[in-house]
Amino acid sequence: MAHPGAELFGSDRVFLDSVDQLQQRGWRVVVTIPSSGPLQEELISRGVEVLTRPTAVLRKSALGPLGALRLVADIGRGIGPGIKVLRAVQPQVVYVSTITIPLWALLARLLRVPVIWHIHEAETGASKIIQKILAAPLLLATRIIANSDFTKAAMVACHRRLNDRFHVVLNPVTGPVSPVWPRPELKGRINVLFVGRLSPRKGPDVALRAVKIVRDSGIDSSITFAGSVFAGYEWFEADLMSQVQSLGLSEVTDFLGFVDDVWPVLASADVVVMPSVADEGFGNSAVEALLAGRPVIVSDAGGLIEAVDGYETARVVARGEHEALAGSICEMVQDWDRVVASAPNDAQRAQQRHSVATFGAELDKVVQEVANS
User: Any bridge partners for residue 339, and if so which?
Assistant: First the structure.
């Protein structure tokens, strides 16, 4: 099982659950990741054999001259170690996590090993040509697992031949052992929570400007950011902190960095926001908010809509529109009695929809089919 990183964000946690579920169902699992980190520690604690091996990571920057050269160099460095791993392990199936590490799929098919590709990405903002190029490696897959209908549709739109290879399996999301339900009355300051990467595409700046509007409307509110930046994006974090100063929000803004245990943070929040400005394949953090009994406001960014569909305490606003986000926060505050009444039912619905056991059974079914084909 190959994964592109060693952190513990959304796709990393889905990968961890995938490993757990396959191990519990009797499969021998060997994991390869390109670096060490908290994911590696979690895997080792579960008795998983983890191999740290270099691999090329496909990003949009690879479409430029310098990026393409770096990608070629990374491919060259990864071929030898990759082939050695596959020959040593002799897998029945190679499971590739996310669309960004095509080298493992290529090497597996060269050695006549079937490939299951589990994808979470749905990039529809780029040009059609770039979308087709980024999705082209999926043609190597024997079967493809998508985390949402939106993700599947985005990939099939690029290459229609992929349609029959897809199997949609909703992400597993485990809720808190004992949810702390919303406070019955909103007395005092309202705490808005942003959970996720601090990156331009996730819209933390949109959340910041929205809270400014909410405060200007007379509602005492604060904002907490639970998440860190990708390496190389430190400039964006600095820019975000500069905006905090310029908007006069220093006293009501808190940056927690990466949070391993999100439930205490959610328990201290009143409203969760996910104002992504680029399409998302799904929205694990939105589901976590619902499981914790917190109302959540997401942007109309692809799979986020699908993630919150059918929940009373969820709202969808136009992406990039901080005024719309602010308005929705104010509406949540005004409609708090309904939020309090609906939160337990929404949490139960989310728990049923994103059961780890159901996810594991679906994943095992796909692996069995591919291994026995």
Answer: none
pTM of the prediction? 0.86
How many structural domains is the chain composed of?
A: 2
Task: For residue 1, tell me if it sits in a domain.
Answer: no
Distances in Å between the alpha carbon of 18 and those of 23, 92, 145, 362?
9, 16, 12, 10
> What's the rounded Cα separation, in Å, for the pair 204 and 230?
14
- DSSP assignment of 69-126: HHHHHHHHHHHHHHHHHHHHH--S-EEEESTT-HHHHHHHHHTT--EEEEE-----SS
Could you tell me if residue 269 is inside a domain? Answer: yes
Q: State mean pLDDT over 322-342.
A: 98
Identify whether 185 is part of a domain.
no
Rg of the chain, C-alpha, whole Å? 21
What is the domain extent for residue 250?
190-353
147 and 25 in a single domain? The answer is yes
Candidates 62, 37, 63; CA nearest to 50 is 37
CA distance 159 to 162: 6
Are 69 and 156 members of one domain? yes
CATH code at position 143: 3.40.50.2000
The verdict on 212 and 121 lying in the same domain is no
pLDDT exceeds 70 at position 159: yes
When pLDDT is cut at 50, 70 and 90, the band that residue 72 belongs to is: confident
Query: 255-281: per-residue pLDDT in tens?
Result: 999 898 999 999 999 999 999 999 999
Residues 98 and 232 in one domain: no
**β-bridge partners, 31:** 50
**pLDDT value of position 294:** 98
Cα–Cα distances (Å) from 130 to 156, 198, 225, 279, 297, in that order, read 14, 25, 32, 15, 30
d(CA 149, CA 139): 18
Residue 177 lies in a domain: no
